[in-house]
Amino acid sequence: SDIGSQKERVVTEEEWLQKWEMGNIGFHKEQGHPLLQKYLDVLLNGRSGLRIFFPLCGKAVEMKWLADMGHSVVGVEVSEQAVKEFFSEHSLPYYEEPVPEITGAKMFQSTSGNISLYCCSIYDLSSSIVGKFDGVWDRGALVAVNPCDRQRYASLMINLVEKNSSYLLVTVSYDPNKHKGPPFYVPESEIKSLFG
């Protein structure tokens, strides 16, 4: 499970914010991800009215899609620009309020109440702040997390899910010696050791 030169690579919060400011967001998909559509039944598992978590959500269009199906969506994103673009691109009215437990954090919520996006570091969240989730759509989060933070990330995610939750995870496969990431290469063996 050699991840090559990526092991030491660190992308700072400032670098992510800069990507959004510069419009360097090739990771954003204008259309919903085909794998979510393909595996939606696995995520929902015959259930309705779920609480679904989007780690490092950006302005993922799938958040509106799932909310329109009657689910409650919670996301976390470090870029306030991304969060505001999500609401404006979908013409969704929203309000913002501070998150008392997290210095400098804001929560942006659709006025309909079914989409709540936290603008802060994901590592500042806990189940006491955001509650627990029935499902997770991790399309670009684990592969964006710095390799040195993966264990911390996985522990947080395990802490945020209910016992019978569904976790959909998308990773990318390539030779990590030829690409410095992100997205980072996460070998299947590491996914198993992180999530069990």
Return the average pLDDT rounded to an integer: 93
The fold-level CATH name is Rossmann fold
Number of helices: 8
The CATH superfamily is known as Vaccinia Virus protein VP39
Let me know the number of strands.
Answer: 7
Q: Roughly what percent helix? A: 25-40%
Quaternary structure of the protein: single chain
Widest β-sheet, arrangement of strands: 3-4-5-2-1-6-7
Rough outline: globular
The number of distinct structural domains comes to: 1
Fraction of residues in β-strands: 15-25%
**Class per helix and strand makeup:** alpha/beta
The CATH class is identified as: Alpha Beta
Order of helices and strands: HHHEHEHEEEHEHEH
Distance between the termini: 16 Å
Radius of gyration: 16 Å
Can you name the CATH architecture? 3-Layer(aba) Sandwich
Major β-sheet profile: 7 strands, mixed
Give the low-pLDDT segments: none
Written overview of the protein:
- The chain is an alpha/beta fold and 196 residues long.
- It has one domain: Vaccinia Virus protein VP39 (Rossmann fold, 3-Layer(aba) Sandwich), CATH 3.40.50.
- Helix content is 31%, strand content 20%.
- The protein contains 8 helices and 7 strands; from the N terminus they run H-H-H-E-H-E-H-E-E-E-H-E-H-E-H.
- A hairpin with a 7-residue loop joins strand 3 and strand 4 (106-110).
- The longest helix is centred in the C-terminal third of the chain and has 11 residues, at 150-160.
- It is globular and about 45 Å long.
